[in-house]
């Protein structure tokens, strides 16, 4: 049986199931906490640090990432203290230094009261939220991309920066990227993603391209349905 835990968030006593994160408990009672790397379909990763909150831990207050910190009996959480606001603004400025123009980041910055970044712009585009990497691994199930490097050199890339052998060109990474930095283009029966060209399967009746061949082969391998059957289903 699931054990229920009592926590206090922003002065409100809340019942939450064990193993619930602070973020989930807070959102469950409509207390909003900003996030960029959180996606409820994926394992929390704690990368962006925008979701920081303050917890009262004995006599000390500590900052924790609410998307990965689980509630415990009697936990006291404050989601909007000056310290929390300051750390979120700092994080936002660091993110803006990597990508100063994307509307999603500008909207978040405005919400947090950040007009600009005091850090020099080093345009990377990618904010290292890891949603693409987790989607590829956890939803698609292929791990075609991953993180490489450390610190400011950290990037999302394919193995050895080469054509990714496991990629099925489904584009899930591009769709889930909150800042649109993963380039994907369909042209003349070819899908180009991660600097690699993938053949698309074409519907003979309509002439429309349906999906990358490797994607249908992947689905075929998982479902036992033939590629021809899968293609025919979408050939309308
Ligand atoms: S949402 Fe928690 S660290 Fe990004």
Explain the overall architecture.
With 236 residues, this protein is of the alpha+beta class. The protein has 2 domains: 109 residues, Ubiquitin-like (UB roll), CATH 3.10.20.740; 103 residues, no CATH class. Helix content is 28%, strand content 22%. It is built from 7 helices and 11 strands. The strands form 3 sheets. The protein has a 5-stranded mixed beta sheet, with helices on both faces. It has a 4-stranded antiparallel beta sheet with strand order 8-9-10-11. Helix 2 runs antiparallel to helix 3. It is globular, with a radius of gyration of 21 Å. The N and C termini lie far apart (48 Å). The mean pLDDT is 95.
Secondary structure elements and pairings:
Elements lengths: L3 E6 L2 E6 L4 H7 L23 E6 L2 E6 L10 E3 L3 H17 L4 H10 L18 H10 L5 E3 L6 E3 L14 H5 L7 E4 L2 E4 L2 E7 L6 E4 H11 L3 H7 L3
Helix pairs in contact: 2-3
Bound molecules: FE2/S2 (inorganic) cluster.
CATH class descriptor of the largest domain: Alpha Beta
What is the N-to-C succession of helices and strands? EEHEEEHHHEEHEEEEHH
Share of helix, binned: 25-40%
Main sheet strand line-up: 2-1-5-3-4
Shape: globular
**What is the CA-based Rg, rounded?**
21 Å
Instruction: Please identify the structural class as seen in this structure.
Output: alpha+beta
CATH topology of the largest domain, what is it called? Ubiquitin-like (UB roll)
Which parts are unreliable, with pLDDT below 50 for 5 consecutive residues or more? none
Tally of discrete structural domains: 2
Ligands: FE2/S2 (inorganic) cluster
Distance between the termini: 48 Å
- Could you say what the CATH architecture of the largest domain is? Roll
Enumerate how many helices there are, as a single number: 7
Indicate the multimeric state: single chain
